[in-house]
Specification:
The complex is a heterodimer of chains A (391) and B (160). Chain A has 391 residues and is an alpha/beta fold. Chain A has helices spanning 4-7, 10-15, 22-29, 48-59, 72-86, 101-113, 130-136, 156-162, 185-195, 255-268, 274-286, 288-311, 336-347, 373-390; strands spanning 35-36, 96-99, 119-124, 140-145, 167-172, 201-205, 231-236, 249-252, 324-325, 349-350, 352-353, 365-368. Chain B is extended. Classes of the chains: A alpha/beta (391), B alpha+beta (160). The A-B interface holds A 19, 21-22, 25-26, 28-29, 36, 38-41, 43, 45, 127-129, 244, 296, 300, 303-304, 307, 373 and B 7-8, 12, 19, 22-25, 151, 153, 155, 157, 159-160. Bound molecules: pyridoxal-5'-phosphate.
Chain lengths: 391, 160
Amino acid sequence: MIDYTKVLSRMVSQDIKPSGIRKYFDIAESMEGVISLGVGEPDFPTPWHIKSAGIQSLEQSKTKYTANAGLLALRGEISKFLSRKYGLEYQPKGEVLVTVGGSEGIDNAIRAIVSRGDEVIIPQPSFVCYEPLVRLAGGVPVIIDLKAENEFRLTAAELREKITDKTKMLIFPFPCNPTGAIMEREDLEAIAEVLRETNIVVLSDEIYSELTYGESTHVSIASIDGMWERTIVINGFSKTYSMTGWRLGYVCAPAPIIEQITKIHQFAIMSAPTTAQYAAIEALKNGDSDIERMKAEYDVRRRIMVNGFRKLGMDCFEPRGAFYTFPSIKVSGLSSDDFCEQLLYSQKVAVVPGNAFGASGEGFIRASYCYSTDHIKEAIDRIGKFLKEIK
Amino acid sequence: MNIQILNLLAKNARYTVSDLAVMTGLDEAEVEANIKELEVAGLIRGYKAVIDWERLDNAYVSAVIELKVVPQDEYGFEKVAENIMKYNEVESVYLMSGTYDLCVIVKGKTFHEVAMFVAKELATKHEITSTATHFVLRRYKELDVELVNTEKDERGAYSL
Ligand SMILES: Cc1ncc(COP(=O)(O)O)c(C=O)c1O
């Protein structure tokens, strides 16, 4: 009989753990009457005119592979979008690559830069994919524990402390899933100051760039003096246009980097989904008002949720981006895992433990506001009951 | 005038003052004052539920009536429109561009009742030169609310 323990890659089967986000979802799925604040994807349908562009492309039999880098027309629109929104300039030919979600872009960018033994600095709590993907590329994750008292922003001092001669890359996860933290221009200037004289490449995951709340809108670190040449920007359509299932994203970087990332993409993927690419052209051309509409709705929900948690006596820093809140569960006296498990069994509310996003997320939970206001209020009511119960 | 409050109430008239305060970042007194102002200024004309009457048997039927009207000196279409809108059977009255002049939405218990109303009350007015009655057979969406095939939340636990 085959011995799978001998067959499977040691790295994948032992060093890579499945995402901790799933743990309570699986229990939740087997229970009746659970309401969730767990998902990390928008509830809005993809706007009709965008769907329609996809349908039209199918009717016109646009069902072949596209250029490896993606349709040139789409790369052109991406280039215009980044210029108009963030003042970033990328040439459609050579500096833009269309990928299967931001996810593929992150993976390929890491693989194109990181060699065995290279250190990659990852601020946490942050998106769950960075650490395993760095390991798969042979890199060594170096974690920075972001602090609630800094509003989960990365400070220059924290960064400087972790840089060694082996540091190859900094993962830059803002606006941040799960904390909702953003980095404002002054924050970015300070980080740039540390990086400008180094050979460290910044992987800036800007998938939530259009979802920021309050006065200041998103600033890309690539737009800060001296940073363009050392930054790889990841973005995509999933969150901005509510297009998660279309699986489309993109990577922008200086040509020598895109050239290498494109090689990996070419061999592993060939080209991103064609239908999705046609829909995405429409999204970029005529989707600005959709973004505004959805963002206004998220903002209302965000306020309701933050207010709800604070009224329950939970410390909840005001998230300025993405669509998550990251309240402290200190008042409960429980660990993140115990909180999530007991809350699920007692009040049937599913949330994600903060430590799924790194050890520094311990003591917090992630609650998404990709839900209707009624749903959010019901969930917060139940969390209130739970807190009373365990007192 | 607070447009944000208008937009929120347009979506859900049952948001409470304290909900609206949280949603807009205003304090409750400001929200209350704003709503009062919107009501007094006549921007907010009422608060009604969106009801799917088809779920009740024989609830009511409605029809869209196209009217051609001879405009009157001085008043144009105003007098006729204002006269028609007074009937309880009339739900909405609009002045239209295009091939006819007034669009009137009429409701009644049965098709017959609506037809009789049009024949007796509308067709007989001397300013009205023609009527065309179109009965509503099925409602798919009413006041922004989808009444059929409302989309279920099919998001699974797949996102990270
Ligand atoms: C921070 C962050 N980056 C990237 C992604 C990947 O999204 P996609 O592959 O759908 O573009 C996600 C999705 O949850 C995310 O939260």
